[in-house]
Specification:
CATH superfamily: P-loop containing nucleotide triphosphate hydrolases
Number of helices: 9
Strand order of the largest sheet: 6-7-8-3-9-10
Radius of gyration: 18 Å
Number of domains: 1
Largest sheet: 6 strands, mixed
Number of strands: 10
CATH architecture: 3-Layer(aba) Sandwich
Shape: globular
């Protein structure tokens, strides 16, 4: 469903240029959930932004549903691929109601039955009709992220890109959002890429994962390998030890 070959992303020019992604390659099967893991600055969010078209200046090949992607993406591509961002407040327009936020992608994609689609999307993410005409500042962090998820799914994509979808939320609501994502992935048969620095989240949600460091691939493994503590590379072992230490505290 997704193929990335020798992806390179560079920001800036000359001596001050930063190579955020350095020759990365991986593939994701249809209906699979694939994790990109690494510490902050490892390049994992940049990979997602290149996949969805927010980063247009890249080298290498990106194929989605067997079609090579150019720097400028079509409306059909955005019907196929949607993204949920890390910050559920910053990704929602502060002066737009939930109704307008959810109605915008429907209008862009020229879909019909807007009222029905909005009501169904809110129901799917666990928000009732009373939330439809609220503004983002009237919602909790978890509720805002549910709206973000509803906005991504309202055009019925086949691929969902998740950029640290729970890291900006209180611990008390993180599990609720993760369980929601698992249910929606199963019910909609979604292909998903999850970016996270939290190995516990990745082990819970993903089938396979790729560990990144300084823009490069370090190690690819299954979630079962991660759960059994069987990574080969020293960097992955260090990440795993750090995650275990955090949970014990």
């Amino acid at each position: 469903m997704i193929e990335v070959e020798n992806l390179r992303v560079r920001f800036g020019r000359g001596k001050g240029a930063v190579e955020a992604v350095r020759g990365l390659s991986f593939a994701v099967k249809e209906r699979e959930t694939f994790g990109l893991v690494g510490e902050s600055g490892s390049g994992k969010s940049t990979v997602l932004r290149a996949l969805c078209g927010l980063v247009r200046d890249f080298e290498g090949t990106i194929r989605v549903a067997s079609e090579a992607q150019r720097r400028t993406r079509t409306d059909e591509f955005h019907r196929l691929v949607q993204m949920v961002f890390q910050d559920p407040f910053g990704s929602l327009h502060p002066r737009h109601t939930v109704d307008r936020i959810l109605g915008e992608p429907i209008a862009i994609q020229r879909l019909g039955n807007a009222d029905l689609r909005i009501a169904r999307a809110l129901f799917e993410v666990g928000l009732g009709p009373s939330f439809r005409f609220r503004y983002p500042h009237q919602l909790s962090g978890g509720q805002r992220q549910r709206v973000s998820i509803a906005r991504a799914l309202i055009v019925e994509p086949r691929i969902l890109l998740l950029d640290e979808p729970t890291s900006a939320l209180d611990v008390s609501v993180q599990a609720e959002i993760l369980n929601l994502l698992m249910r929606l992935r199963r019910e909609r048969a979604l292909t998903t890429i999850l970016v996270s620095h939290n190995l516990a989240v990745v082990g819970h949600l993903c089938d396979r994962l790729l560990v990144m460091n300084a823009g490069r691939a370090v190690e690819e493994m299954t979630a079962e390998d991660l759960r059994t503590g069987a990574p080969r590379e020293e960097y992955t072992q260090a990440l795993l030890r750090a995650s275990e230490g955090y949970r014990r505290l």
